[in-house]
């Protein structure tokens, strides 16, 4: 019998996302933004600000969002 948890394992957070929203594309885009900013401005303050926002963006989309998805799915399974 296929339980909700088995279904979740088959259709996890990243399987639901399009190609442009996969971990590799999020990391690659962030690195590209950091490198481009440094190449264009050569300013450590701007680079630091862009890097802080990029790391926050990575943390949000690579750690917090999948964890929240798992908690929501687990809540639905428990019901």
Describe this structure in words.
The protein is 77% helix and 0% strand. By secondary structure, it is mostly helical. It has a domain at 44-79. α2 (23-41) runs antiparallel to α3. The protein is elongated.
How does the SSE layout of this entry go?
Elements lengths: L3 H7 L12 H19 L2 H35 L1
Helix pairs in contact: 2-3
End-to-end distance? 18 Å
Label the structural class.
mainly alpha
Number of helices: 3
Shape: elongated
**Arithmetic mean pLDDT:** 87
Strand portion, in percent? Answer: under 5%
The value of Rg in angstroms is 17 Å
Produce a short descriptive summary.
This protein has a domain at 44-79. Helices cover 77% and strands 0% of the residues. It has 79 residues and is mainly α.
Defining key terms:
single chain; 79 residues; mainly alpha; 3 helices; 77% helix
């Amino acid at each position: 019998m296929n339980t909700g948890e088995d279904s979740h394992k088959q259709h996890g957070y990243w399987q639901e996302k399009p190609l442009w929203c996969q971990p590799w594309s999020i990391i690659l885009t962030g690195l590209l933004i950091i490198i481009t900013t440094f190449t264009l401005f050569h300013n450590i303050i701007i680079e630091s600000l862009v890097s802080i926002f990029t790391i926050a963006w990575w943390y949000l989309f690579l750690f917090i969002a999948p964890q929240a998805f798992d908690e929501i799915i687990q809540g639905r399974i428990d019901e």
